[in-house]
Amino acid sequence: PSAFLDVRDLRIHFPTDDGLVRAVDGISFTLERGRTLGIVGESGSGKSVTSLGILGLHHRGRARVSGEVWLDGEELISAPAERVRQLRGQRMAMIFQDPLTAMHPYFTVGAQIIEAYRVHHKVAKSVARKRAIDLLGRVGIPQPARRVDDYPHQFSGGMRQRAMIAMALVNNPELLIADEPTTALDVTVQAQILDLIRDLQEEFGSAVIMITHDLGVVAELADDILVMYGGKCVEEGTAQTIFRRPEHPYAWGLLGSMPRVDRSVRDRLIPIKGSPPSLINLPGGCAFHPRCPYQGRNGIPCRTEVPTLAEGSDHGVACHIPPSDRRRIFAEDIAPA
Ligand code: SF4
Ligand code: MG
Known about the structure:
Oligomer: single chain
Bound molecules: iron/sulfur cluster, magnesium ion
Distance between the termini: 41 Å
CATH superfamily of the largest domain: P-loop containing nucleotide triphosphate hydrolases
Low-confidence stretches: none
C-alpha cells in the first residue's frame, strides 16, 4: 500500500448475549499525511469503533476483527498487541470527547504529559517537563509554567480539553484521531480548538481523522468526508462534493441539521425521522430504508438488496436511486438554485 494510512474492509463484530453486534461492517479508506478525513454519522453508526479499531483499542479478546489497517506500510490488525501499543502514543494518538477518559484524576496534568513523553523518549524529567510547559502554552493555556502542576479537576472543561490535546500531541503523532473533540464545549472554545488542531496539523504535517455527528464541524476542516450509517459507509468523497452536492438521502438529512446551510435550503430538507438502527438487528436491504422518504421509489429494491458504493470513483454513494435521478432530486427538491 502506498497511502500513509490504508484501511481495507475493516470489520469489527462483537458477540453478545443478544446476538452479534456488527459495529463496523466493511469500511475502507485511505488517508495521506497532512490531510484530514471527516467521519460523520449519528451516534451508534460505528464511527467511534472504527477509530478504536485503527488504534487497536477495541476489546481484542472479545471482538472479531477482520480486514487490514496499514500505517506507513505496516499492517496493524495482525501485528502483536505490544507493537500496536508502542505505535500508539509514538506515531498515533487520540483526542477523546471527554478528557477525563484520557486523564487520571490523581496525577497532575504535567506529570501525565511528562509520562506520556518519557515512555517513548529517553530524556531527563526536566527536559520532558520543559516540553510539557511548552505544549501547554501552545494549546493556549495561560501561565503554563504554573498550571503544569495543577490537577485535571482544577482546569475548566475547555482548558482540560486543551491539556488533553497537549498530551495527545506530545510525541508529534503522525496520525491524530479526534472523536467529537468539541461536542461538550461552548461555541467559542469549539472554534478555538478546531483552529488549534488545524494549526498543529500544518506544523507537523499529521494525518487527521475527525469524527463527528455534525457535518458543520468537518465541512471547513476536512479534505474528504466519509458518511457512516449502520456500520457501513453510505457516501464518501471530497468535502466539497459531500457538502455542496451530496447524493445519499441520509446525507441530505444530515445537511438539514447544519446551521451554516442557507435557511431556504434547510427549510426544504426532510429531517431524518426515527432513530439509528440497532447494530444487532440491522434492517435488511438498505439499512436506512425504514427512515428513507425515497425507499421503494420507482420499484427500487431498498428492502431486499444492500446497495454498494461504486468502486474506483472519487464519489461513492450506496443508494439504489440511479445517479442521474439522485442529482436531479438534489438539484430540484433539496437545494434548488
Ligand atoms: Fe433510500 Fe433506497 Fe437509497 Fe436506501 S437505497 S437510501 S432506502 S432510496
Ligand atoms: Mg461515539
